[in-house]
Amino acid sequence: MKIITLIFTLLFTTQLLAEQPMLRATPYKYVQQAIGKGKPHFIELGSDSCHSCRIMGKQLYRIKQKNPAFNIEFINVKREREAAYEFKIRMIPTQIIYDAKGKEVYRHIGLLADKELQELFSTYNF
Prior knowledge:
This protein is of the alpha+beta class. The protein is built from five helices and four strands; from the N terminus they run ααβαβαββα. The longest helix has 17 residues. The chain is globular, with a radius of gyration of 17 Å.
């Protein structure tokens, strides 16, 4: 009985530690209004039920925690289909960067490594 309890406790603890927070979804209408207002924006388009999207969401959450002034937004296109259409999303996750004037300057489909993300934030003056 002690072994079963120990195994259950270890599995439960491992599950809790493995679950890291990810970016919360921002409503599309707020993101749409904010783009082009003098600061660059990094938009992550995906779904909370997509494995690769959750990985990106966790990476971006960590970056946002370290750099709260960065405009990093997550739009859940599974819930907001209009956003998928407006942003011309073909696959998820998709990352789009808009410059301070609202011009799209970068688009990527798939996962990005932490190093690539850091380079993007540096290149586009976040």
